[in-house]
Design a protein that fits this description.
Elements (H helix, E strand, L loop, with lengths): L15 H17 L2 E2 L6 E6 L13 E5 L2 H7 L6 E4 L16 H7 L2 E4 L9 E2 L2 H7 L8 H12 L1 E4 L2 E4 L3 E7 L6 H20 L3 E4 L37 H5 L17
Parallel strand pairs: 2-3, 2-9, 3-4, 4-5, 5-6, 9-10
Antiparallel strand pairs: 1-10, 7-8
Length: 267
């Protein structure tokens, strides 16, 4: 007796109109990046990370960076006001050289925000207790989540038991936050999306550079909609442990219509 075949549920398919609208949104977000406009008055804050879309950063607002983004800002002859580092030190695998040059960071005059006290390093400790009391979900999956939470903490206060927006930051613009490697995609992406959702609930807008996988669904379409099983991981992110080489970009990755600016070119 042949196995029973499940009947297809027509309600699980997108209507042509909905599908067309979704495709337009995907194309637009690929070209312009995804964004949610602010609903409160204030000023922009740029959060700069190390992903490929960092080359899109215009440095036209106050900028916070992480790890060694200070090296890139020097190359671009730009500047930052705060630098977030949550590791005491990281060492290169081959050379064994330290990753962070504390003396150079101090010379640049950045306000260094850390999650650990480090002897001989002038820094400000991340206010974990106060932030966790205001936002009682300790969902910190990477350094970027600390940065967003810090911006929200600085832009809100508690009134009658409710967290309300007070400014100054009403729009968080993320560059280099691409989540294009398997570990980032699996372990870190959700935390960033969570904190941007908190921001949106407070009326604070956000945007991410084109090429970022933030707010991309696993299969590329809304959950419950029909999609090709071959597109379950259309960008190969869960198999990727590094950005693709130029040869891979010119070859097989060209067919992955991700529009990620792998070459770091200043826009």
């Amino acid at each position: 007796m042949p196995p029973l075949q499940p009947k297809k549920d027509p309600s699980m398919k997108m209507t042509k109109e909905a599908a067309d609208d979704f495709i337009k949104w995907v194309k637009r977000s690929a070209q312009e990046g995804k964004k949610c406009p602010p609903r409160v008055e204030g000023r922009d804050l740029i959060i700069l990370a190390m992903g490929p879309s960092r080359g899109q950063c215009p440095f036209d607002a106050e900028t916070w960076g992480l790890n060694t983004t200070y090296v890139m800002t020097e190359e671009f002859e730009e500047d930052m006001t705060k630098l977030f580092i949550v590791h005491k030190q990281v060492y290169a695998l081959k050379s064994g050289n330290p990753y962070f040059n504390w003396e150079h960071i101090e010379e640049k005059g950045y306000e260094l925000i850390t999650t650990h006290r480090m002897k001989g390093v002038k820094s400000k400790l991340f206010p974990m207790k106060r932030i966790s009391e205001r936002f009682p979900i300790g969902f910190f999956s990477d350094t970027i989540t600390y940065m967003i939470a810090y911006a929200l903490y600085k832009s809100t206060k508690e009134v009658d038991g409710k967290v309300v927006y007070t400014g100054p930051y009403n729009n968080l613009r993320l560059y280099g936050v691409d989540m294009q490697e398997g570990e980032e995609y699996e372990y870190e992406k959700g935390g960033i999306e969570y904190w941007l959702g908190i921001a949106q609930g407070l009326g604070i807008g956000w945007s991410v550079g084109y090429g970022s996988t933030l707010f991309d669904t696993y299969g590329g379409v809304p959950y419950g909609q029909t999609f090709n099983k071959g597109r379950l991981d259309p960008k190969g992110l869960l198999r990727r442990t590094r950005p693709p080489t130029q040869e891979e970009i010119d070859g097989e990755h060209r067919e992955v219509k991700h529009n990620a600016p792998w070459k770091i070119i200043r826009q």
